[in-house]
UniProtKB/TrEMBL annotation:
GO molecular function per UniProt: FAD binding; oxidoreductase activity, acting on the CH-CH group of donors, NAD or NADP as acceptor
PANTHER family reported for this sequence: CONDITIONED MEDIUM FACTOR RECEPTOR 1, GERANYLGERANYL DIPHOSPHATE REDUCTASE
Name the record gives this protein: FAD-binding domain-containing protein
InterPro entries: FAD-bd (IPR002938), FAD/NAD-bd_sf (IPR036188), Geranylgeranyl_Rdtase_fam (IPR011777), Geranylgeranyl_reductase (IPR050407)
FAD-binding domain residues: 6-159, 254-305
Highest taxon above the source species: Bacteria
Amino acid sequence: MKNHYTAVVVGGGPAGSAAAHTLAKSGVEVCVVDRFRFPRQKLCGGLLTQRAKKNYAAIFGPGWDEMYEYRCNGAKFFDGERLVNSIENYGELYVCDRFRFDARLIDKAKERGAVLVQGERVTVVNARNCVCKLQSGKEITYRYLIGADGVNSVVANSIFKHNANRNGKAFALEATLPASTLSREVAEPEIYFDSIDWGYGWIFPRNDVVVIGLGGLFAKNRDFRAIFNTFFQERFGKAFTGAVKGHFLPFGDYAKSMGRDGLLLAGDAAGLVDPITGEGIAYAMQSGFYAAQSILDALSGHTKNVNAEYRKRCAVITGELAYAAKIRNFLFSAATRELFISALARSESAPRRYMDLMSGDITYRELLKNSGRKLLRLAADKITGT
């Protein structure tokens, strides 16, 4: 590790790896600092959509088949025990183990020439002097810095002086169990819309294990462990006795400025997580790539304001999340949730549109435009009793 790099990336997850890979590929001296050693555990359902596959291919090139552990072509949607709809032969969905997925991504960045500093926590970012201070006492100076260090980002805190308010965030609990210990087989991703207020539950197969979790707005759900225990009991007919892990995640509250003074925020550090589907990996890779491209433009003289350039690129993401935040109120609000479930149950095309949305084949704006009239008719039918 040197004392100075053109770019320092804090966090070596999908956003940080995408940024470091892109910069190093163009010959930029870049250093990635991560507080853990790879491979490291990461709480995540691990569902990868076609959106993630497309972003991976655009950034890292070939090798997608090495990135996941399980592949399927459909999903099931539940309201309680009731299967309200399903989709078959949609196209490929993937489930990854983040332990391996993230390690493979950071390896690709290292292969391009990025320097990885592992097991070192960034404690202070001094934006005025362009200095990164590490827990070990070492200091790294930089010209540009990308904060890709997750929902509790040290970089974001150095910019915005975040308070510790968790009410605007979601919280998720998750357990991974051997498939052989469960009372039934799980062959496709299962989504449960009734399991938690302002959120949903999931059961994802991954070869010989099954990932079981739920997440919802922290302010609306206080006893997450009790909710998880009930969810497991109802899905598998026995009490849960294993280990469960939890973490906070963004819930539609993304950073409008995306950074400041040559500091760029990417992935969860910027709040770039879909507040409906929970999609985060694809947006993390995409935003990391955009951050790197913006720095390359600044280095080449194509732009004088790296932050403005980055915001412009990320508008395609933040615009989607803004629409998602509006639609979320309809999907999760107690006043309108029943309409959503009724629409999902009555429509043959609704599950496919949901998957198209996750794959990036349609936008939330298009979804709202195409579905608005149908929802109004459904609401009228409910009111008149027809």
